[in-house]
Design goal:
The complex is a heterodimer. By secondary structure, chain A is of the alpha/beta class. Chain A is built from 18 helices and 20 strands. Classes of the chains: A alpha/beta, B alpha+beta.
Chain lengths: 495, 215
């Protein structure tokens, strides 16, 4: 389907003016909430609202019908109106120059036979009048380049490079909450609702050609046409990293098969194989999917699987080595020259291998210098740094206690906080200079996001991972894609 | 959709036409014939009951393995023909050279209701369902897709050198998967193929049993 004939997607994500049809004066109704969220987040285009009784809502003078809106002033409409009113509204909107409609109204296919007929009828009208129809029964759309938050629920995520499309509205909210919490921003987000005309794969395909989007993030449930999905996802994944979560694994595909192959062909296995073949990064949870997408958006791809782990103390390094052993990544055996260089920098109690555990032997410049050495070393493909914020955590205990006024304490508090912030900055600088991923992980990212360590990671535009294991999982996603791209390149070389 | 399975002989014949190595297996009409055929293919042999309606031979005990000489073949052939049930319809015997290897794999083709023709490879042969180390891809497959399927298996150690046997010949395995994909494209009536087990003999995978399901 060429869903974008007539520029419908541009109108949906970057409208020059929007209409909220069925705006409500009651703050508990979604016809109010959508208007509120559009105005609250400073959408820059013109905003119109219709309400049968007229009157003013949130400073917008409503009009009783679409006819009262100037021609060409709005190209996107949000329908919060009853099912029966919508076909005529679409016709009226088309005459005013509207090219896209987001149908928030429920009571369509999700509610039974009559709803399904109404949905078909509405979609036919949309096709006839040349309007791209999103939904129905969708939660809304977010587009940060246009400061557009047209959703019936919070939050509004920070701007960024991730494009989200989901078959479920509340999963969009989950991704947006993770975006807000982590600071890794979103370009576009849309809930597909019943996908009468436009499905998750269609949105992802638009994102693949969208200059505002670098990474696709999708949530899928049912699959109607598997081959069409495979073709679309393959095209998208050739253009940009694409992370997908699949819900609704029912085992329905597992039939009482005559063949062993059929008995083994569960929905999950076939879907997983399809993703890998399409070059799609499949994730099993919302957190894993978001963190993979956030990593694609903020880190370069590793050229190989060899990871160097730098930690200020023992247990973290051991568990990270275990996590790497379970993954498709490798713990790099520490090259002799790095061994010698580090040996000259710290007391002999350090681990003398990778993970590079300094056993608290570091002085002021040790960690920045080792990060730089690792980034510059040709055998290292990626770096994981653990232990960010540890000293600032101690500093906080000092700063908030009854001895805080002691000048010695104040000095060391400042020193530790400065150091942790510096480590995060150096990690980002080393990544930029070397073209290698450098990931920082600490649970302080969640337990105390104000800690100068994780805060500085966030300020550097990177994700601060909640654990080393989660950093390993995210990095593994990048390595998988890196391998796919390397394979594709070698395939093009040999005809 | 009503489907039927081809007899073992017809299944073997079809997959062999696409270049899939399958243990030499010849038909025999009665115990005397079975002994003659066994001399021809070489001992040890396996003898199986064959018929278009017979599936799941292992589960029904219709496969006798490791028969070392003529008397053993004769005894097995008599017993198998006695085991046949009226519902099995016309039956005869298959005599095959025993393929021996410490490792068994499984491969096949399946028609998925959503994604259509898929190719599968897995570890475990007749125990594949218990191992659950199987991967699927959509047909058509190229050699790179097939090689990636092998990389996607969890049991990589089983594909390397194993109990004194060399590593599995990955090219040979890729060849089998791509051949299944070609079969899927060229035989629209075939809805499923099992190559189970694929015994790894001296590093080379050879199908010991094939089952083809058609519309």
């Amino acid at each position: 389907m060429n869903a974008n004939a007539g520029g419908g997607f541009e109108a949906l994500f970057d409208p020059r003016g929007v209409i909220v049809a069925g705006a409500s004066s009651h703050p508990g109704k979604f016809g109010f909430v959508v208007l509120h969220n559009i105005l609250r987040n400073a959408y820059a285009g013109r905003v119109f609202a219709t309400n049968i009784d007229g009157g003013e809502i949130l400073g917008v003078v409503t009009v009783p019908s679409i006819d009262a809106i100037p021609d060409g002033a709005a190209d996107l409409v949000f329908l919060c109106t009853p099912v029966a009113a919508n076909p005529q509204l679409l016709r009226d909107c088309a005459r005013k120059g509207v090219r896209a409609a987001f149908v928030m109204t429920s009571g369509y296919a999700e509610s039974g036979e009559a709803g399904l007929r109404a949905e078909h009828e509405l979609a036919a009208v949309a096709d006839e009048v040349g309007i791209l129809m999103a939904g129905p029964n969708g939660q809304g759309v977010v587009s940060t380049p246009s400061s557009l938050c047209a959703q019936m629920v919070a939050p509004y995520p920070p701007p960024g490079r991730i494009g989200i499309a989901s078959q479920s509205g509340n999963i969009v909210s989950s991704f947006e909450n993770l975006s807000l919490g982590s600071g890794i921003g979103v370009s576009r987000a849309v809930s597909a609702g019943n996908s009468a005309r436009v499905g998750v794969a269609d949105y992802l395909e638009f994102f693949a050609g969208d200059p505002e989007t670098d990474v696709g993030l999708g949530y899928l449930e049912g699959v109607l046409d598997g081959r069409a999905l495979f073709d679309t996802l393959s095209r998208v994944a050739r253009e940009m990293p694409l992370v997908v979560v699949k819900g609704g694994t029912t085992g329905a595909g597992r039939r009482a098969a005559t063949s062993h192959t059929g008995a083994l062909a569960s929905d999950e296995r076939v879907f997983a194989g399809m993703c890998r073949q399409a070059g799609v990064n499949q994730a099993t949870t919302i957190e894993e999917a978001f963190e993979a997408a956030a990593t694609f958006a903020t880190q370069p791809l590793p050229r190989g699987p060899n990871v160097a782990v730098l930690t200020t103390a023992g247990g973290w390094g051991v568990l990270t080595a275990d996590a790497l052993a379970r993954s498709e990544l490798s713990l790099l055996p520490l090259p002799d020259d790095l061994h010698a260089a580090i040996d000259a920098m710290v007391p002999p109690r350090w681990s003398r291998g990778n993970p590079i555990d300094l056993a608290a032997g570091e002085t002021r410049d040790t960690i920045p210098e080792i990060l730089q050495l690792l980034g510059a070393h040709p055998a290292v493909d990626a770096v994981l740094f653990l232990g960010s914020g540890v000293q600032s955590n101690q500093a906080k205990l000092m700063r908030t206690g009854k001895f805080a006024a002691d000048p010695g304490l104040a000095r060391i508090v400042e020193y530790h906080e400065r150091q942790d912030a510096r480590y995060a900055r150096v990690a980002a600088e080393v990544s930029a200079a070397s073209g290698k991923p450098v990931l920082v992980a600490t649970e302080l990212a969640v337990t105390d996001p104000a800690n100068p360590g994780p805060r500085a990671v966030r300020d550097s535009g990177k994700l601060c991972y909640w654990s080393a294991e989660r950093a390993v999982t995210a990095l593994e996603h990048l390595w998988r894609r890196s391998r796919v791209l390397q394979r594709d390149r070698s395939a093009t070389r040999t005809p | 959709m009503v489907t039927r399975t081809l007899s073992e002989a017809d299944s073997a014949h079809l997959v062999a036409r696409y270049g899939i190595p399958i243990a030499a297996s010849l038909r025999a009409h009665d115990p005397d014939d079975a002994v003659a055929v066994a001399h021809q293919v070489g001992y040890p042999v396996a003898v199986k009951l064959n018929g278009p309606r017979i599936t799941h031979k292992t589960e029904r005990g219709l496969v006798r393995l490791g028969l070392a000489d003529g008397p053993a073949v004769r005894a097995a052939a008599v017993a198998l023909l006695d085991t046949a049930l009226p519902v099995d319809g016309d039956v005869d015997l298959m005599v095959a050279r025993m393929v021996s290897g410490a490792r068994e794999l499984v491969a096949g083709m399946h028609t998925d209701p959503q994604f259509g023709r898929c190719i599968m490879v897995g570890v475990g042969g007749v125990l594949a369902e218990a191992h659950a180390d199987v991967v699927f891809r959509l047909a058509p497959l190229d050699a790179a897709d097939a090689a990636d399927m092998l990389d996607d298996l969890r049991s990589q150690a089983l594909l390397g050198p194993f109990r004194g046997e060399p590593a599995v010949d990955r090219h040979a395995l890729v060849h089998i998967l791509v051949a299944l994909s070609r079969l899927a494209a060229a035989e629209p009536r075939v809805v499923a193929v099992d190559l189970n087990p694929l015994v790894v003999e001296g590093g080379v995978p050879i199908a010991v049993d094939a089952l083809v399901e058609t519309t």
